Each structure stands twice: as structure tokens, then as C-alpha cells.
């Protein structure tokens, strides 16, 4: 019986140096981008040797030497939610432009799981954390104690001592109501997502403000999870109401997608019988049927601002609030 082939040993920095005809120190300068400069010709020889040998630097040793893991962490409440998936992807790309990798953790909408994920990232000594918390005022003591900087992402309220980045939820909701009023709707309902802390969401504040400013009649408020199922259940309840509204603002695209399913099942036409405007601007809004009019969050701008706040070496802490943009599609009657 032939002996199994032994695994080929991994290439070392010395192997790269030998093949490139340089010292190990020069290989280190090329891999780490310094501290000493290397001529373009020498760098090309080293990189050719790295490619030929399949050399991979020891990340742990590099982190120890640099005093940095070159790794950032991000905690999201629902990794399956298309908005948070898009946001995480945008953060990952913005971080990569600065030489950082991103470790994404899912809290599943649970406060206890969120705390465990933060503790896990602290134990891994990441260089910073983006936290999309289930609370409006999350507990950040673990990060403070570990002296790990954090940015509260998808967060639209000031948090003293921490950077935060979010979208103007209240203004966006008011914009949605104003648009529905322009279509002639006089009674506008609300499907509002629930949060762990039970705090009043700014989207509900904006909805009420828009109703009052336009002199409209407030329709029913239906509460449920920020999910397709949450929107579907709210829609089933709404469509059984004897005096249902002619329009609805849904606090997330996923809820609106669930509402559309309930409408299709009940034979309620959108937008002829019920107009719908949602919030987030996810891909699901564009590819639902009918396509959803939505208040879009500037995900890429938010991601770049969050990365800049975390690793850009800025000064004082600040709260960045971006405006939402109304994307007009068929679900409102446009």
C-alpha cells in the first residue's frame, strides 16, 4: 500500500526571502507596508516570491507586533434582514479600504445575545466595534472598560462619549405621510415595529407629526416585529377592520412585503384599494410586486461615516444623522 503523501509545509518568510534574494527584514517591510521603504523593483520581486510560494503571513504574530488585530467587529440584530445585510456589506467594503477585516455577529434581536456578542468581540481584542443595538441606549461598559472604541450604527440619537451614525427617522416618516396625503389619502394607518426596550420609535413620532400637519385622520396603529411575518400578521388584522384606512406607512420594507402578501391573499389591490409606503430602501422594496415606494437610507454614506469615526483618528465624538430619500414606485400610486 502506498504511503499517504505528507502535507507540504507552509512557506515561511525566510523561504520568500531566499527566493526573492533579499533579507527577511525586507520581506517584512513589504508585507507590513513599512517601517522602511522598499524600491518598486525589490517589492515586485518579493511579491512575485510570495505568489509563487503561496506565503501567508501569520495574522496573530502580525497583530502582536503591530499592537492591532486589524479586525473590526459588528453586531446586528438580524443578519437575515436585507437592510442589515446590505449595511454590513457596505461597512465591510469601507473597512477593507482602510486595511481592516470585519467580523459580523448576530444578536437575533435579543439583548442578552447582544451583550454576549459584544463580550466575545472584546475577548478577541478587535480594534473597534460597530453596534446596531436593540436598545436606544445600550450598555457599553464592557467596551469602555476594555478601551475599545465603538460606533453606534443605525442609531439616530446622541450618545455622550460615543460616535453614532443613523438616519433621520422622524423626518423620513413625516415625508412618507406627506407623500400619501398628496395622493389624496385622508386616513393613513401605521405598521410599527417593536423594540426590546419598548421606547417610542421616531418613525411613529414622524407619522403622527405628518398626520397632524396635514390635518388628516390617524388610522389604526398595528405593532409587530420588523419582519415579513410581522407585517403579514399586521396586514391580516388591518384588512379585517370594518373601517380600514386607504393608505399605510410601514416602518420597514420587510413589514411592507408581509403586508403585500396579506393584501394579495385578501384580494385587496395595491395601490388601488390600499396605498403603501415603507422605510429602509432595501432591494426587496424594488423587487416586490408592486414595487414599494420607500424612504431609503443612504447605506453607503452611513457605512463610510461609521468607519471614518471608528478608525479615522478624528477628534471629538459626534452624531451623524443622514436624511432619508423618498423613492417613488407603484405601491403608493405613482
UniProtKB/TrEMBL annotation:
Pfam families: LacI, Peripla_BP_3
Superkingdom of source: Bacteria
Record InterPro entries: HTH_LacI, LacI/GalR-like_sensor, Lambda_DNA-bd_dom_sf, Peripla_BP_I
Gene3D superfamilies in UniProt: 3.40.50.2300, lambda repressor-like DNA-binding domains (1.10.260.40)
UniProt keyword annotation of Hydrolase present: no
GO molecular function: DNA-binding transcription factor activity; transcription cis-regulatory region binding
Keyword Membrane belongs to the record: no
SUPFAM superfamilies in the record: lambda repressor-like DNA-binding domains, Periplasmic binding protein-like I
PROSITE patterns, A to Z: HTH_LACI_2
Listed SMART domains: HTH_LACI
Domain HTH lacI-type: from-to ranges: 11-66
Entry keyword set: DNA-binding, Transcription, Transcription regulation
Name of the protein described by the UniProt record: LacI family transcriptional regulator
Organism: Sinomonas humi
Lineage: Bacteria, Bacillati, Actinomycetota, Actinomycetes, Micrococcales
Amino acid at each position: 500500500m502506498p504511503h499517504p503523501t505528507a502535507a507540504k509545509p507552509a512557506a515561511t518568510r525566510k523561504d520568500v526571502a531566499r527566493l526573492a534574494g533579499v533579507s527577511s527584514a525586507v520581506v517584512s517591510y513589504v508585507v507590513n507596508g513599512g517601517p522602511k521603504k522598499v524600491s518598486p523593483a525589490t517589492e515586485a520581486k518579493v511579491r512575485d516570491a510570495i505568489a509563487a510560494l503561496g506565503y501567508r503571513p501569520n495574522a496573530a504574530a502580525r497583530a502582536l507586533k503591530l499592537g492591532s488585530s486589524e479586525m473590526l467587529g459588528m453586531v446586528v440584530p438580524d443578519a437575515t434582514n436585507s437592510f442589515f445585510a446590505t449595511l454590513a456589506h457596505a461597512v465591510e467594503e469601507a473597512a477593507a479600504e482602510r486595511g481592516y477585516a470585519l467580523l459580523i455577529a448576530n444578536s437575533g434581536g435579543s439583548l442578552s445575545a447582544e451583550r454576549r456578542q459584544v463580550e466575545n468581540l472584546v475577548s478577541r481584542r478587535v480594534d473597534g466595534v460597530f453596534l446596531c443595538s436593540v436598545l436606544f441606549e445600550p450598555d457599553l461598559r464592557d467596551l469602555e472598560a476594555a478601551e475599545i472604541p465603538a460606533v453606534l450604527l443605525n442609531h439616530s440619537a446622541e450618545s455622550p462619549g460615543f460616535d453614532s451614525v443613523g438616519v433621520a427617522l422622524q423626518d423620513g416618516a413625516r415625508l412618507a405621510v406627506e407623500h400619501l396625503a398628496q395622493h389624496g389619502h385622508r386616513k393613513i394607518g401605521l405598521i410599527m415595529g417593536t423594540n426590546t426596550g419598548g421606547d417610542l420609535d421616531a418613525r411613529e413620532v414622524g407619522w403622527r407629526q405628518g398626520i397632524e400637519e396635514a390635518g388628516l385622520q390617524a388610522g389604526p396603529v398595528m405593532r409587530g416585529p420588523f419582519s415579513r411575518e410581522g407585517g403579514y400578521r399586521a396586514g391580516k388584522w388591518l384588512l379585517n377592520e370594518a373601517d380600514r384606512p386607504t393608505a399605510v406607512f410601514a416602518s420597514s420594507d420587510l413589514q411592507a412585503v408581509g403586508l403585500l402578501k396579506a393584501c394579495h391573499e385578501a384580494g385587496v389591490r395595491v395601490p388601488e384599494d390600499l396605498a403603501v409606503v415603507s422605510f429602509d430602501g432595501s432591494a426587496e422594496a424594488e423587487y416586490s410586486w408592486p414595487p414599494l415606494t420607500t424612504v431609503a437610507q443612504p447605506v453607503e454614506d452611513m457605512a463610510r461615516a461609521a468607519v471614518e469615526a471608528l478608525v479615522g483618528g478624528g477628534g471629538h465624538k459626534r452624531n451623524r444623522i443622514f436624511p432619508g430619500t423618498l423613492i417613488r414606485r407603484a405601491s403608493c400610486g405613482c
